[in-house]
Amino acid sequence: MTGSFFRILLSVGILILAGCDDFLDEVPDNRVDLNDLDKAAQVLTNAYSDASYAFTDWMTDNVAYTRGVNLRTNHQEIYSWSDETTDATETDTPTFYWNATYNAIAHANEVLAVLESLDANNEEDEARKRAIESEALLTRAYAHFMLVNLFGKHYDKQRAGTDQGVPYVDTPETVFIKTYARNTVQEVYDRVEEDMLRGLELSDDSFFSNSGKYHFNRNAAMAFASRFYLYKGDFQKCIDYSNELLGNDPSAFVRDLTSDEFLNAGSSIEGYAQIYNSPDLPGNLLLIRKVSLVQRTDFAHGPTTTLYNDLFGLNPFAGTVDERENPALVKGENGVFPIRYQSLFQRSSLNSNVGTPYHIHLAFRGEEVLLNRMESYVELNRLDDAIRDLQVLVDNRYSGPPVTVTIQLLRTAFGVSGDPFVSDKFVLDLYVQIERRKEFIVQGLRWFDIKRFELDVVHNLADGSTIMLDDKDLRKVLQIPASAVEVGGLQPNPR
């Protein structure tokens, strides 16, 4: 049995991912016998893709040409929105993400396929089976959701039924070679929603013990639903699930960067990153280990000093400091890199100097849910509700004199105080986009906003010339890996 989508559909044997169980490399008669709940739960630890999508920031307006850094082929291709030519083992690429994520899906499918046949001797075992099923469904749904939003167009209800998405794989592999068809974006979203809602219904955090933030706990599932319905354009449902997590007082889920704890940690590179990514923070909802180099300041393009200063100069609150701007590291000769990650390294052996670079990724956090709800309020013209949420974010991001957020303050800052042709809704919508861009810089979510809002991106090159990705550019949909086209029979995206 292959048991792993990427071994069949993509370049068999090319990619060996850390943490992959041996059962995935065996023929059918030799697969691991998932004959108890402990084994099933253990297999699910590999149902989380260890590939990072933060490389997408290199395609956005968050970066510019950075001198003095190591620019590999994949960095240059991604920065120029070129289709990938690098080896499938190269991290921080579309192919690496595709392979690792379908591999994670395969683990979830193995568990779901055998779960009903596992004995439950008592009510506690039955409850644990439901919790395992919940985690498997949520991981499968999340993996497909991220894939379709990278390798398909952004969801649009007018065309989602014809836009090509990705294969939704929901059964284990039982043949060596199998071809697949691409489901439409609508079909993928429908299947994601089904798995996600069923996973939420079955969720039970009591079996996660002290490691709950590294599993798809209930809070993370509600944050997933918040993102899902925002991207789908169902703003009321986005608000509903955001409310279920945040309630009327979301401040508990928003880290206070103006606090003494964070301000004092700013003098320690490691200390700040540890606090920022701590599972003890209520707003850090799901943490996943990612094999990546995006956390390294000596690799790839990043925010240049000019770009960075311009972005954080978009501060409408006079006399305040946006604490997201610092601490930041020097990147190359002309860039900076805000501290968000610990740069971690797993040695191949105790005495080895080679190994695997990685970081801990915040897959979901409270600030995103707050911003999702804020945007949905704006879309439904509930501007007072949106400003209340914005006030919470501002209180925890901008140090200095107290700020009372009002629409008039924002209009003045944008220079449209008395302009009757610019609506309050437009001003607030634009400002929420700016806050999202600042909040998620170098973490990968900006790319999805660029697709959602159909934004242009301009990148400068070493010789001073520029290249452009326009609002409806086909390259905003990442190309299906060549091996998936050649071996799996998938139709490539148009160019």
How would you describe what is shown here?
The chain is mainly alpha-helical. The protein contains 17 helices and nine strands. A three-stranded antiparallel beta sheet has the order 1-6-5. A hairpin with a 7-residue loop joins strand 5 and strand 6. Helix 13 packs parallel to helix 15. The protein is globular. The N terminus is likely disordered.
- Main sheet makeup: 3 strands, antiparallel
Would you identify the regions where 5 or more consecutive residues have pLDDT less than 50?
1-30
**Overall pLDDT:** 92
What series of H and E elements makes up the topology? HHHHHHHHHHEHEEEEEHHEHHHEEH
Multimeric state: single chain
Number of H/I helices: 17
Percent of residues in helices: 40-55%
Rg over alpha carbons: 22 Å
Structural class: mainly alpha
Shape: globular
Count of strand segments: 9
Query: What amount of the residues lies in strands?
Result: 5-15%
Distance between the termini: 35 Å
Q: Strand sequence of the main sheet, in spatial order?
A: 1-6-5
Describe the SSE topology.
Elements: H1 5-9, H2 37-43, H3 73-79, H4 94-115, H5 123-151, H6 185-202, H7 218-232, H8 235-246, H9 260-265, H10 269-276, E1 284-291, H11 305-312, E2 321-322, E3 328-331, E4 335-338, E5 344-347, E6 355-365, H12 366-379, H13 383-395, E7 398-399, H14 407-413, H15 424-439, H16 446-452, E8 457-460, E9 466-469, H17 482-486
Antiparallel strand pairs: 1-6, 2-7, 3-4, 5-6, 8-9
Helix pairs in contact: 2-4, 4-5, 5-6, 6-7, 7-8, 7-12, 8-12, 12-13, 12-15, 13-15
